[in-house]
C-alpha cells in the first residue's frame, strides 16, 4: 500500500494542474484499511503532498476538520490510489467511505480526476 | 439546542421556504377549503418529518458519496436509482424555472415588461457567474435571507388575519370531500428542500443527533411560516380569487406602498438565494452522475482552481432559462403546482421505499439508526401513494398527465440507455 501512496504523491507533485488545485491546501489525508488496524497518512502542506507514513488507527470515526479520512478494503484503496478505480463509483457502491469537510473531499476528487481522467 | 442544530435547521428551512411556495399555497384554494388546507399542511408536515428522518439515516450510510444516488442504488438497483437521481435534477430545474418566472412577475410589480425581463436576466446572469467562479454566497447572507422571509410571512400572516371569522373557517370543514385530499401533495411541496441539509453536513457526527433535530426543527418552522399565510389569504380574499393569485404575498401587501415595496425586495432576495442554491445543487448531481459514468463525460469538466463543474452549471442554467420561458404560458403556469407536487411525492415515496428496503443495522458508513417506526414510514408511504393516484387520475387534466408521462418517458429512457451503455460494468470486483 505504501508503494501506491508514494507513487500517487509523486505523480501529484509532478502535475501542474494538481499543484494549482492543492495550492494553499493544508490537510492530512488519513487512509484506513477496513477490517484491519492498518492506517497511513499523507500530509498535504502548501501545495505539495509531503510525507507518506504509517500511523495509529483512529478509533473515533470522525476527525478534526483539517483531515479527510478514507476507509475501504485494501484492494479498493490500492485501486483508488493507482487510478484503476473511480472514487465516486466506489463511494456510490458503499465500497469507500469518506469523512471530512465537503470542500476537502471535492479537492481530493479533483486531484484524482486530473491525474487519471473521468 | 446547539449551534450545529441551529445552523443545519436554518439551511434546511432556507431550502424549503421560497416564494414559489406562496404560489403553491394560493393554488391549493382551487382544490380545497381553507380549513382543509390547514389540515393538509399539518398532515404534509407530519409526513415530511418521517421522510426527513429517513433521509438522515440513509445519507449517514454513504459518507462521501452523492447520498440520493448511493442509497437508492443499494435499495432499488442501478437503473431505478439513476432515474430517481435524474428526477431530482428535473425537479430542481423545474422549480428553478418556476421561480424564474415568478422573479419576472415580481419585477413586473415595479417595472415595464422589457426592463423587468432585463432585470431578471441580469440577476440570473449574476447568480450563474457567481457559481461558475466558485464564489459561493456567504452562509450568513443565506441564513439572514431565510430569517427575513420567515419573518415576512409570519408578520403578514398575523397582520392580515385580524378579525378572522373562526366560526366560518371551522364551518368550511363540512364542505370537505375526497377531492380535498388533492391539496396534500401541494402542501408537501412546501417542505421540499428540507432534506438538502443532509448535503451540508460537515461533521459526520451530526448525523446521530444534530441533523435529525435540525430537520424536525425545519419542518416546524416551515409549517409556522405557511399556516398563518393561509389564514391571512382566507381572511382577505374569496377562495376563487386566491386560486388565481400568482404572487399572493404581494396581493396581501398591495394596499400599503411601504409594505408592498418591502415585500418585493424580500421576495427578490429570496429568489436570488433560491436560484443560487438550486443551481449549485442540480449541477452537483449532474457532475457526480457523470463522474460515476452514468451521464456523458461532457459534464465532468471542472474549472481549476475554483473546482466548479462549469459545464454542469451552464447546462442547468440554460435548462432553467428554457423552463422559465415556458412558464410564461398561462396554461403551463397554472399546471405547474400540481405537476411539481406529483414529482415531489414520487421522490419522497421512493425514499420511503428505500428506507423500508434497507432498514436495520448497516455495516456501511456511520451506521446511524434513528429508531423510526416502520408503521409511520409505511403509513406515510401509503398515504402519499393513495393521494398521488387520486390527484393524477381524477384531478389532473390531459395536458398535465401528458407532461408527467413525457417526463417519465424521458427519465426512464435515459436511465435505461445509460445503463445499457456499459456504465454498469462491475468496476469494483466486490
Task: Produce a short descriptive summary.
Chain A is an alpha+beta fold and 118 residues long.
Pick out its properties:
heterodimer, A: alpha+beta, 5 helices, 5 strands, 42% helix, B: 430 residues, mainly alpha, 73% helix, 0% strand, globular
SSE topology sketch:
The complex is a heterodimer of chains A (118) and B (430).
Chain A: H1 2-14, H2 16-22, E1 27-33, E2 39-45, E3 48-54, E4 67-72, H3 74-81, H4 87-92, E5 96-99, H5 102-116
Parallel strand pairs in A: 1-4
Antiparallel strand pairs in A: 1-2, 2-3, 4-5
Helix pairs in contact in A: 2-5
Chain B: H1 3-16, H2 19-28, H3 34-60, H4 67-76, H5 78-108, H6 113-132, H7 139-159, H8 166-171, H9 183-189, H10 210-236, H11 239-242, H12 248-253, H13 257-292, H14 310-326, H15 330-358, H16 374-395, H17 398-423
Helix pairs in contact in B: 1-7, 1-10, 2-9, 2-10, 3-4, 3-9, 3-10, 3-15, 3-16, 4-5, 4-15, 5-6, 5-13, 5-14, 5-15, 5-17, 6-13, 6-14, 7-10, 7-13, 9-15, 13-14, 15-16, 15-17
Could you characterize the architecture of this molecule?
The complex is a heterodimer of chains A (118) and B (430). Chain A is α+β, with helices and mostly antiparallel strands. In chain A, 42% of the residues lie in helices and 26% in strands. In chain A, strands 3-2-1-4-5 form a five-stranded mixed beta sheet. In chain A, a hairpin with a 5-residue loop joins strand 1 and strand 2. Chain A is globular. Chain A starts with a helix and ends with a helix. About 4% of the residues of chain A have low confidence. With 430 residues, chain B is an all-alpha fold. Chain B contains 17 helices and no strands. Chain B is globular. The termini of chain B are far apart. In chain B, 52% of the residues are buried. At the A-B interface, helix 2, helix 4, strand 5 and helix 5 of A face helix 4 and helix 13 of B.
Amino acid at each position: 500500500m505504501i508503494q501506491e501512496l508514494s507513487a500517487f504523491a509523486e505523480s501529484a507533485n509532478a502535475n501542474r494542474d494538481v499543484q494549482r488545485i492543492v495550492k494553499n491546501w493544508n490537510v492530512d489525508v488519513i487512509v484506513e484499511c477496513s477490517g484491519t488496524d492498518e492506517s497511513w497518512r499523507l500530509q498535504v502542506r502548501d501545495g505539495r503532498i509531503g510525507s507518506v507514513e504509517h500511523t495509529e488507527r483512529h478509533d473515533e470515526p470522525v476527525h478534526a476538520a483539517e483531515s479527510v479520512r478514507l476507509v475501504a478494503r485494501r484492494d479498493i484503496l490500492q485501486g483508488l490510489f493507482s487510478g484503476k478505480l473511480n472514487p465516486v463509483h466506489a463511494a456510490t457502491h458503499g465500497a469507500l467511505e469518506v469523512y471530512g469537510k465537503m470542500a476537502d473531499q471535492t479537492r481530493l476528487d479533483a486531484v484524482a480526476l486530473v491525474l487519471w481522467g473521468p | 439546542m446547539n449551534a450545529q442544530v441551529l445552523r443545519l435547521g436554518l439551511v434546511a428551512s432556507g431550502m424549503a421556504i421560497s416564494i414559489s411556495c406562496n404560489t403553491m399555497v394560493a393554488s391549493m384554494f382551487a382544490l380545497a377549503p381553507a380549513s382543509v388546507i390547514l389540515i393538509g399542511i399539518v398532515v404534509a408536515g407530519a409526513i415530511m418529518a418521517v421522510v426527513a428522518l429517513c433521509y438522515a439515516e440513509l445519507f449517514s450510510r454513504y459518507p462521501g458519496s452523492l447520498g440520493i444516488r448511493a442509497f437508492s442504488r443499494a435499495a432499488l438497483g442501478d437503473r431505478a436509482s439513476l432515474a430517481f437521481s435524474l428526477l431530482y435534477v428535473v425537479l430542481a430545474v423545474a422549480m428553478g424555472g418556476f421561480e424564474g418566472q415568478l422573479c419576472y412577475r415580481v419585477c413586473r410589480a415595479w417595472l415595464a415588461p422589457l426592463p423587468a425581463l432585463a432585470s431578471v436576466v441580469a440577476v440570473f446572469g449574476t447568480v450563474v457567474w457567481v457559481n461558475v467562479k466558485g464564489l459561493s454566497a456567504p452562509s450568513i447572507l443565506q441564513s439572514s435571507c431565510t430569517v427575513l422571509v420567515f419573518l415576512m410571512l409570519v408578520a403578514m400572516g398575523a397582520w392580515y388575519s385580524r378579525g378572522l371569522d373562526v366560526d366560518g373557517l371551522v364551518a368550511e370543514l363540512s364542505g370537505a370531500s375526497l377531492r380535498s385530499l388533492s391539496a396534500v401533495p401541494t402542501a408537501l411541496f412546501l417542505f421540499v428542500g428540507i432534506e438538502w441539509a443532509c448535503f451540508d453536513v460537515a461533521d459526520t457526527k451530526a448525523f446521530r443527533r444534530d441533523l435529525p433535530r435540525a430537520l424536525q426543527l425545519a419542518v416546524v418552522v416551515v409549517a409556522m411560516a405557511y399556516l398563518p399565510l393561509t389564514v391571512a389569504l382566507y381572511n382577505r380574499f374569496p377562495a376563487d380569487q386566491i386560486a388565481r393569485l400568482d404572487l399572493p404575498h404581494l396581493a396581501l401587501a398591495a394596499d400599503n406602498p411601504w409594505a408592498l415595496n418591502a415585500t418585493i425586495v424580500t421576495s427578490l432576495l429570496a429568489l436570488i438565494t433560491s436560484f443560487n442554491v438550486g443551481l449549485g445543487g442540480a449541477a452537483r448531481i449532474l457532475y457526480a452522475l457523470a463522474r460515476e459514468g452514468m451521464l456523458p463525460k461532457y459534464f465532468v469538466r471542472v474549472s481549476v482552481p475554483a473546482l466548479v463543474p462549469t459545464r454542469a452549471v451552464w447546462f442547468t442554467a440554460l435548462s432553467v432559462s428554457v423552463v422559465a420561458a415556458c412558464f410564461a404560458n398561462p396554461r403551463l403556469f397554472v399546471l405547474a403546482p400540481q405537476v411539481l407536487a406529483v414529482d415531489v411525492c414520487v421522490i419522497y415515496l421512493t425514499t420511503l421505499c428505500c428506507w423500508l428496503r434497507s432498514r436495520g443495522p448497516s455495516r456501511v458508513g456511520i451506521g446511524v439508526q434513528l429508531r423510526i417506526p416502520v408503521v409511520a414510514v409505511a403509513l406515510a408511504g401509503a398515504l402519499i401513494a393513495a393521494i398521488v393516484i387520486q390527484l393524477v387520475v381524477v384531478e389532473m387534466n390531459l395536458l398535465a398527465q401528458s407532461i408527467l408521462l413525457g417526463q417519465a418517458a424521458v427519465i426512464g429512457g435515459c436511465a435505461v440507455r445509460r445503463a445499457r451503455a456499459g456504465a454498469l460494468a462491475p468496476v469494483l470486483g466486490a
